[in-house]
Amino acid sequence: MQDVVLTTPRLKLRPMVEGDIPAHFALFADPEVARYWSREPWTDMTQAEESIRAIIAAREDGSEVRFGIELLSSGELIGNVGLHHFFGQNRRCEIGYALVSKVWNQGYATEALRAAIQHGFDALDLNRIEADIDPRNIGSGRVLEKLGFRKEGYMPERWLVFGEFADTVNYGLLRRYWEA
Ligand SMILES: CC(C)(COP(=O)(O)OP(=O)(O)OC[C@H]1O[C@@H](n2cnc3c(N)ncnc32)[C@H](O)[C@@H]1OP(=O)(O)O)[C@@H](O)C(=O)NCCC(=O)NCCS
To answer: Gene3D superfamilies in the record, alphabetically (predicted)?
Structure first.
């Protein structure tokens, strides 16, 4: 059960709740956000309801640590970042994230991920965090590289997205890179 709240200079990272459903829907209904997310943009509010319920259930059973990302200045929910696919024995997990397109390129993802990663290495005692991104998702790769992730691999045609095969670039961040 994770009910942790983290704050950064401009953001609050906090558990997601049922009241987030409309903002969560708006996030994934945006075709720009869904472009490299390996699923169609949402068209129905029930998709957001199911997703929020799944996020709450995963928090309760400990399988995922997902934070809603809120602007401190206005309280607006601008996205989320999650640590998931935990392999406890190996102290590793994956990271996933999305922000509403109107706030892109202002450093918010980098700021939010930095806090979530610090939480992963400190409170969750992780040794390694992995990310899997589409090579065309330049902004996402840039965020990971700014945070010290290293490119570790390339897997062609790993996903079938909107009828088109998409490649994966694998990134990894080790605790020792983070601490250096
Ligand atoms: C990926 C995402 C989270 C980045 O969020 P963000 O708040 O814009 O990220 P930041 O502002 O912290 O950093 C983005 C960086 O990418 C750079 N960038 C973005 N698009 C770029 C492009 N087309 N070419 C070159 N650099 C680009 C920005 O300039 C910035 O780098 P800088 O700080 O060195 O200038 C956001 O675009 C998003 O939510 N995308 C949709 C969901 C998604 O793809 N999630 C990741 C799935 S793995």
So the answer is: 3.40.630.30
